[in-house]
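Reopening this ticket.

The earlier resolution said the output was attached, but the attachment link was broken on my side. Pasting everything inline this time so it's all in one place.
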Amino acid sequence: MSRILGIDPGSRKTGYGLIESATGPAVGSPGFVACGVVKATEGEMPERLRVIFEGVTEILESYRPDVVTIESVFVNRNVSSALKLGQARGAVIVAVARAGVPMVEYSPRQIKQTVAGNGNADKGQVQEMIQRLLDLDACPSEDAADALAGAITHHYIGRTLSRLRDANG
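Inline output:
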């Protein structure tokens, strides 16, 4: 089994979702392990970044994933929000790099296309699909669902890319 940790960075809420993926030639369905949110709602930006870094570090130490996925940078209309998101991503990336875990990036459109069949799916559609794909009793929060969607994307796309690399030597 391979453990895939998806992380959805945010300057106030950073979602995480962990799945298990069977290794070998058959893909199969991913298995749900855990999900949640690191909340950094109090304080100025440096304090929130510390909370994000420490929260992600704790998650990495607790669950010991084999790979981490994160959304690639996207251009937002609000420059201030985009800069804060970039800083939160930086805190996550440093925590992952410090733990020595490989990291893969997928675009938001690629993630939505993979889990919902529509690259423009809204957050509610992603939540519903995550609930169905992982056979959960309830929809996870938006942030946790986005993180799980990243992990599921790697479950399907990452394995395909790995097999193509292996086949081409």
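Reporter confirms the inline version is readable. Residues 131 and 139 are 5 Å apart (CA to CA). The helical segments are 45-63, 79-99, 108-116, 123-133, 142-167.
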